[in-house]
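Structure request: XshC-Cox1 family protein, Streptomyces tendae.
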Amino acid sequence: MRDVLPVLGRWYAAGAPFGLATVVEVSRSAPRDPGAAMAVGPDDEVVGSVSGGCVEGAVFELAREVVAEGEARLETFGYSDEDAFAVGLTCGGELTLLVRPVTPELDPAFGDVAASVAAAEPVTVATVTGGPARRGATLAVWPDRVAGGLGTPGLDVAVTADARGELALGATGLRHYGPQGQRREDTVEVFLQSFAPPPRMLVFGAIDYAAAVARIGAFLGYRVTVCDARPVFATPRRFPADVEVVVAWPHRYLAGTDTDERTVICVLTHDPKFDVPLLTEALRRPAAYIGAMGSRRTHEDRAGRLKEAGFTERELARLRSPVGLDLGARTPEEVAVSVAAEIVALRWGGSGAPLTTTRGAVHPPRPSAGSAR
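Returned structure:
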C-alpha cells in the first residue's frame, strides 16, 4: 500500500473513482502479507499487486465492479484443482481481500492519509470488513486526531484505542468487536492497517561498500543515513539521492540518534578508532540488527576490545560480524546483497539455506504484531 499511495493520492485529488483491493487475511503459503494492495483507476490503469500474479485478473474485474456498484466486497481466494490457473492461488495458500470503491464522498480522509504516509507521519486506517457495520467504512487514526467513522460512537472509541496501540508497534491485522465496540463480542470485523514511519538503516563508513548497502537498504524500504567523520568521503554525490549523508564522528552521531527495535545498524568503518566506540554505543541500545564489516582477524581484535570495555559474550552475540551471509560475495554490490540477505533472514527467522535443501512452507507463518515493516 505504501508503494502505490502516491498514485492513489493523485487519482483521489483529481476526483477519479478507483477500486482498491487490500489483503486482509492470509493462511499457509500465501504470497503476500496483509496490507498488500492493488488498485484499478481511470482508464483501467492498474497499480500494485495482491498475489504476485495468481489472482490479479479476477481482482481487476472485482475492482471495476465495486466502482460501478458503489459497494465493498470481501472475497477469498484459495487453491482448487478446477480454478488453480484461473483465479486460484497456485502456491496452495489462501488470501482474503477487501475490495472497495474509493471516492472523496465515500472516504473523506483518504487524501489526508496519503499525505501523512508521504510525510512519514504515523497513521492507522481502520476498515470494516464484515458484520452489521457498513463494509468498507473507514476511520483514520493519528496519534493526536481521528477522521471518518465506522458507524457508531462506541465502535469508533474502541477501534481508536486499539489503532493507536497497533500504530506504536507498526502492526497490521484483523480485530473483532461488538456493534458498539464491545470487546467480548466478535460480530464486527475491522482491519487495522498501520503506516508507521519507515524503519531506519544507519550505515557508518562512507566507502564504496556503504554506497551499495545504502542503495539496497533504500530498495528494501529503509530510511537510510550514511555517517562518516571524513568530509572528503561523506559527500552526497557519492550516494543515492534519497540517502541522507552526515559528517560526524560515528559514535557521537549514534549517541544523539533515536533507535528502536526496527533499526538496522551497519558498521563499515573497518577502523578500531571508529568502530569500537561506535559498537560500544550500538550494543547498548535497541536495534533489530547490528553488523560490522571486517576479516575474522579484525573481528577477533574488535571482540577483544569490546570485552575489555565490559561486554559479555551474551551481549556480543547481538553483533553480526563478519557482516553478511556466506554468498562468496566479492564486489561492493555482492556484499550488499549478502548483508541484505542476513537482515531479511534475521527479520523473518529464515535459515539462509537454499530452498532446495529445506522442507515445509516456502513462506513461513508471519510474525505477530510488531514486525519490522
